[in-house]
# Entry
Amino acid sequence: MESEKNKPNIVFIMSDQQRYDTLECYGNDWINTPRLNELAKDSNVVENAYVTQPVCAPARSSIMTGLYPHTAGPTVNKIPLKEDVKTIAEIIDDNEYCNGYLGKWHLGDDTIKQRGFDEWVSVEDHYNSSFYNGELPYSDLHNWLINRGHKPDGYGPTGKEIFTDEGRSLLPEDSQMAAFLSEKAEDFIERNKQAPFMLYVSTFEPHSPYAGPLDGMYDPETLPTGPTFLKKPDNVAEIDNARSDYHSSFINGADQRSDEYMNNYLASRGEDFSTREGWLKARADYFANITLVDRMVGRIIDSLKKNGLYDNTIIVFTSEHGEMMGDHGMLEKRTLYEESARVPMLIKLQNQNEMKKIKGSFSHIDLVPTLLSKINQKLPENLQGEDRSYAFEELDFGNNEVVVSWNGTGEIDDRNLGTEKINDLNQNPRRSIIINRIKLNLTLNDSAELFDLNKDPYEETNLVDTPEYQEIFKFMKEKLIEWQIKNEDTFRFE
# Structure
């Protein structure tokens, strides 16, 4: 057994709502991410990494537990992890690692140390009302901002003064969440450099509101857009049509200022979705917030190097889900399109100093068992994810099956998503299975979608009724149903 002294540290860095095609190693040659580019040169670059569900809490539950959302508990936001479900911090042998969690949590009360972590730094005030009955304590970020002389700009559900997401976005760069978490990560690394540690750092950027302190870094008119930008999808599920119709309606004359969803979540910082130019500016602002994330990553890496820990540290960078940002005429997430469900994934192993690109598909569900394997930790038998560390040598995940889900909201009031029609359609569970870059989306009480990502990476052509793809459609559906049975899914497709 490897001695404790030589065990690798783990640093897991997660952004929020960052789509896969936002780094140079994924073909993006216009974004300013020098520190992530440097990390990629020392990392395994997973070409096709997917979330288990394209929304915050469910995605995070899989990242932390190696279980699918329907097993871990949070099938939608505002549902905490089940009490009997263990996080990776609780699985690691006691007294072996010092475990720290810094940042957005979303899996229960954000402000208290929990779930096997020895150190805890919180960042959210308003979200805790979903889990906490009584007087809400302020987050560490709130207190830090107060100490820097900033004043709260709004009120939380209980009437207490808080810093809203929109208000925080107005603050200078050195008062953004990414800067706060950089400072706290540097402190954690310095204090724990003598023993193996596992550190999770989870920031809010580049989540909406898209505007931020680096607005103007990119010229909206020069940023490339793909073939589906502001283009209504054709021959797809009704839920995709409904969301595209709604989000695109504002460029066709609908009043975003009188619309609850747009005004509360997207247009509150002055973003204008009534013109193509306004959509392009939102994209530019979104990319600028990714540069904020890059600078946070740089500070963490510099701290590891300063303390002589970089070579003996496993570093993971990913995002909890993606962002449509105008593609297929949509904004935000909660859809099975690649822009929403596919994310960047960099995994730097001990002493790695070269880029290796890994083909095939990988799911967040496999992060926990893969990381545990790399530190020689015995894997619990109940994990639904699998150890994929073989791919670090083979550079291919093979014909690994990846499943992305949407479970509906049920009785949980997650949020109004724009129209009554969208909210109703959103109750229908959806499942997506990807095998060898063929993607099948099934939605209860809605049309199926079949995309050949090898030939159609932008998902422009639904092949579900194409004669030459009927055997493939049948095979993919059978594999999805097999997955449902194996993983005790909450419902079955016929």
In short: The mean pLDDT is 92.
